[in-house]
Amino acid sequence: PDEIKENENEDFKQRTWKSLFWIKDKFSARPIYNDEKIIAVDADSTFAVDDAFEIIPSGPRKGWVRIFISDPTDSFPIRSEMDLFVKNRLSSIYLSDRTIPLFSNHSISHFNLNFKTQNNNNSNDSGIIMEPRSSSSSKKRAVMVFEALINETTGELQDFDVHQGFLTSCTHISYDHFNSLLSVPNSQHPLKDYLVQLHSIAHNRFLYRLNTLSCAELFLPKTIIKADDNWNLTLTRDINSSLVSPSQTTVKELMLIVGEIVGKISAQHHSLTSQILIPISTQQMNILTPEQISTLSNVSDTTVLNYMRLNYGLYSASSYSLDINVKHQALGITNYVHSTSPIRRYADMIAHRAVKKIRGLSTEDYWEEEELKDITEQMNQRGKALKKMVRSSERMFFLMWLGQSLREGKENRWRVTVLEILKERAGKWGEKVVAKVLWNEFGVVIRMILDREGLPAGENRTGGCMGVPFEVRVIEV
Predict the structure, then answer these.
(1) Which long-range contacts (CB under 8 A, 24 or more apart) does 74-80 make?
(2) Distance (Å, whole) CA 468 – CA 308
(3) Alpha carbon distance 171, 191 (integer Å)
(4) What span, in angstroms and rounded, lies between the C-alpha atoms of 426 and 449?
(5) Range of lowest pLDDT (30-44, 279-293, 429-443)
(6) Helices then strands (H, E): number in the chain?
(7) CA distance from start to end of the chain
(8) How many CB atoms lie within 10 A of CB 312?
(9) CA nearest 179: which of 162, 164, 199?
(10) What is the mean predicted confidence (pLDDT) over 292-314?
């Protein structure tokens, strides 16, 4: 509670405010970007926008992709009060009923790339908000700029560059309106062809990653449940958005390019990164056999197989003792480094500071080796605890929604898959099993008491049912 109250704590505001040194009128040599074809894609409700991108329109790098990432690291040094505050929190926390941000609201407004104004008059019927070009210092946002040459045929990253700059305006478009625009065959919107081109680059990247994976891609649905003031619950599902949504694919793949670039910088400067440690993100997934892959007839099967084989992602500080070719198996990218959201993850701030140090863009102090190794371990421990807490919150709200649906007489038959039999028991109501069950449509795992006779048949009704989707009727929550 004390951490949440910091948004209203004037003393905290004053102390952290003094630890920030504003850069709006400093570093005047940095380029300023404000083209209307710089696109920021996010949900309509998103306040803290942290990325934008464009296809470079002219010059020797014409046709390259340019990606802008909000960069708060120029605004306060390591070990300052603001730095210690976000280091303690480590990441934004997304729960079903609230979000606890990494930065306080009074700080994030100076870092995020949201240039939309409440009375914006540049919105059109497509839902696209085009900000006028501006070089005003009041709208100047520090950004890391990643430029990438992507092979048009294979989707492979062929060349890249990194520098710093300022973004003063961009075009905001929601995921839904991005998808709508691409779905209209003969749309005359001036951005239609441009968005198609961006999506084409991203789609080729997706196919390239898919070809490098030693396992099937993770297609876990995401369920979002919101509660109003009277605790009436509403549920929305985002099922396989990276496949069916052009906007989600575009944003995801372009952001993964940034993580790959930072990973390549880490590998190329390996002797230097033994002192300038970068937290490399790894996620190991057991390799699926060809027989298993050939049986993936639908999304539900893919979900189950991958859910049972996916481990927590971990950070490893780069050093001589680390194999520099660490592969993030869930992404198919070697030396992948989280670096696309420093306003939401402390690990990304570390990566930005490291890239600046390696590329000679900063003379700021850096962490000592043992200090950063401790931070890396802290991120792993806290990351696991946060994921456990978030999943507990999701399960609780899902069960509340399910109970509400039963009381209202709505659907009570659902498709599920048993992941693990926890125990068996017999009673006056017959033989039961307690099982860890994945709800295929929602991507939620909860414990259920099931009738043993209702389980799918196999070698036996307990062991043979695991991994096999079947229908259940929910009686009580």
Answers:
(1) 74/23, 74/27, 74/142, 74/164, 75/20, 75/21, 75/22, 75/23, 75/110, 75/111, 75/142, 76/19, 76/20, 76/21, 77/364, 77/365, 78/353, 78/364, 78/365, 78/366, 78/367, 79/365, 80/19
(2) 12
(3) 10
(4) 11
(5) 279-293
(6) 12, 20
(7) 30
(8) 12
(9) 199
(10) 48
Query: Which residues, other chains included, contact 266 with Cβ-Cβ below 8 Å and sequence gap of 6+?
Result: 273, 278, 280, 318, 324, 335, 337, 354
pLDDT at 129: 60
State the angle between helix axes of 246-268 and 346-358 in degrees (0 to 180), rounded to the nearest 10: 50
Q: What is d(CA 100, CA 46) in angstroms, rounded to the nearest whole number?
A: 14
The helix (run of H) or strand (run of E) holding residue 158 is strand 157-167
Element (DSSP H or E) covering residue 89: helix 81-89
Q: For residue 276, give the amino acid letter.
A: I
d(CA 225, CA 364): 43
* Cβ neighbourhood burial of 465 (10 Å; 0-12, 13-18, 19+): buried
CB 178 within 8 A of CB 241: no
Which of 187, 178, 169, 198 is closest to 128 using CA atoms?
A: 178
User: Residues 382-393: pLDDT tens digits?
Assistant: 888 888 888 888
Contact status, residue 57 vs residue 197, Cβ threshold 8 Å: no
312 and 283 Cβ atoms separated by less than 8 Å:
yes
In terms of average pLDDT, the best of 80-94, 316-330, 456-470 is 80-94
Contact, 316 vs 282, CB < 8 A? yes
* Distance, CA of 441 to CA of 429 (rounded, Å): 29
Strands 171-174 and 39-42: parallel
d(CA 85, CA 153): 45
The pLDDT value recorded for residue 464 is 56
- The pTM assigned to this predicted structure is 0.80
Q: Using DSSP, state whether 172 is helix, strand or coil.
A: strand
For residue 130, pLDDT beyond 60: no
- Output the CA–CA distances (angstroms, integers) from residue 104 to 8, 92, 100, 142, 187, in the order listed: 10, 10, 9, 18, 41
Q: Write the DSSP assignment of 442-455 as a string of letters.
A: TTEEEEEEEEGGGS
Mean of per-residue pLDDT scores for the chain: 75
Alpha-carbon distance of 116 to 98, in angstroms, equals: 23
Q: How far is CA 152 from the centre of its chain?
A: 25
Q: Checking DSSP bridges between strand 413-427 and strand 430-439, what pairing results, if any? A: antiparallel
Query: What is the phi/psi pair of residue 41, to 5°?
Result: -110, 125
